[in-house]
Structures are given as C-alpha cells and as structure tokens.
Recover the amino acids of this structure.
C-alpha cells in the first residue's frame, strides 16, 4: 500500500455504525424463527453491546447505534449507557421487519414506535434511521415521506449492489439530499467494470482477510475522496451464540463465518482509521 494512499485515508473522518439487534432478529433466520418466539430465546445483545461500548472507549471512537425499539424496551439501561458515553442513538425500526413485508401504514407505526421508545428512554432526539436489511428500493420510496413526517433528518437504508436479499445497484453511491428532505447515506461500494462491490462491513468484512478489507477501504478513499461508513452487529463478536436449527446452509454460512475473528479485525479497523458518528460526519 502506497504512502500516498495511507496519508489520504488518515485525513478522512469516517462513520462507525452498529445495528443493535440480536442473533435471532436477522433476516437470514426469519423463515425458522418467528417474532412471537423472540421473548423465549436467550437475549445476548445487551452483553455484546456493552462489550462494544468498552471497545469503543478503549480506542476513543464514537459510533452511531441504529437500535431496534424491541431491544430498547428490554434493555433501557443499555440505551442510556450509549448516549451517556457520547454516542449517537438512531432507529433501526421496532420489529426488524423488512419494509417490503409491511404496508406504508405498518411501516409508519413501526418506525414511530421505535422513535418514541428510543427518545423516551434516552431523553434525546433521534434523527437517523436505517431500514432492516437495507430494504429500501424502487417499490417503497414513500418511506422517505414517512421519515420526514416523523421528524427524521437522515437515513442509511440503501446498499447500491446486487444481492439476493437487498440492493439498489442503480441508486446513488454517495450521500445525497432527496426531494423529500431526507439525506440518504448509502453503504459504501467500490466500482469496477461498471459494477459495484460492497465494502461497508457485515459479512463481507468477516469473510475477507483484514488486509484485503483495508486495501478496499484505502482504494475507496483514494478514488472517491469521500467518508467511508462501516456497519456491523453485536452478534458478530459473539462466537458462542446459540446455533439456529432449520436454517439453510447458505444462511448458516453467512451468519456464522469467521465470528471468532471479528473482534480482532474490528480492533485493527478502529486503530487504522479516524471514526465518528453519522451525524457528525455527514450532517455537520
């Protein structure tokens, strides 16, 4: 890696984000775990998120926590700890249902409920939203009107790649102001041969060796001169989480691959780049 690339990367402030949900909330398991059963499953998100707060404190990193209202109801002290430690609290909806599975009215109710719970618990205004599984696409652009009506200022709900669960490859790759009055902040990608490749975190970050992820981030900084935003989940640093039965092999591979290596990779990422919240990186 050239010195030039490293210098360019070191000057850019990037956004660290956490999607606060538990292992049983993920879309990959929605076919075998029903929401009515969530209360009967061991809750691990609280412990894992506290661990992340300790990690962020060690490396003096501030993050945006896109948090499910369902989690906030059950872990109010965690929500208070997030804001007391100077992080940004944002909404991930209430029930982690993909937008395509809900009507506009159901989405409004779900997001409104999450916003109320998060604000009542934290005592702070919530202005950011991330759709479960990046499920905003051409069929539900009305979500931006819903967000505006509910008082949100920005969204990070689109991933401009081809993917079997989500993706809007023809949508903008960088933060842009929508006509509805919402700033949309896509998950970052690199572009080659007229195709986008995801580099924003999650399963891609767990799958690839750290040196390759870093190479892609540095390339993004060099080519685009844009802030980079990274996302992951508390369950990704939890290799001892219960194994879900009945899921497809593809879903299991996606979910469980390299969980034991994630924390070490994350520590390197926190040290190699400058980080702040979505609000501070994109709205100031």
């Amino acid at each position: 890696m050239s010195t030039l690339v490293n210098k360019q990367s070191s000057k850019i402030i990037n956004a660290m984000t956490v999607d606060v949900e538990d292992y049983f909330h993920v879309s990959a398991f929605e076919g075998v775990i029903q929401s009515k059963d969530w209360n009967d499953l061991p809750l691990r998100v609280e412990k894992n998120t506290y661990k992340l707060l300790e990690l962020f404190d060690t490396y003096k990193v501030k993050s945006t926590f896109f948090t499910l209202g369902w989690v906030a109801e059950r872990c109010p002290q965690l929500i208070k700890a997030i804001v007391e430690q100077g992080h940004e609290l944002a909404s991930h909806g209430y029930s982690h249902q993909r937008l395509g599975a809900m009507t506009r009215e159901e989405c409004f109710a779900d997001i409104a409920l999450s916003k109320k719970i998060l604000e009542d618990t934290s005592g702070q205004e919530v202005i950011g939203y991330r759709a479960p599984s990046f499920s905003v696409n051409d069929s539900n652009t009305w979500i931006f009107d819903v967000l505006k009506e509910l008082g949100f200022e920005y969204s990070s709900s689109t991933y401009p790649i081809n993917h079997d669960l989500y993706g809007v490859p023809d949508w903008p790759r960088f933060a842009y102001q929508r006509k509805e009055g919402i700033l949309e902040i896509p998950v970052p990608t690199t572009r080659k041969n007229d195709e986008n490749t995801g580099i924003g975190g999650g399963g891609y970050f767990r799958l690839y060796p750290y040196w390759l992820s870093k190479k892609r981030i540095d390339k993004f900084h060099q080519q685009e001169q844009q802030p980079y935003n990274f996302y992951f989940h508390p369950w990704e640093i939890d290799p001892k989480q219960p194994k879900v039965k009945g899921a497809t092999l593809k879903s299991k591979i996606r979910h469980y691959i390299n969980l034991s290596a994630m924390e070490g990779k994350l520590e390197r990422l926190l040290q190699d780049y400058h980080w702040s919240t979505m609000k501070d990186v994109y709205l100031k």
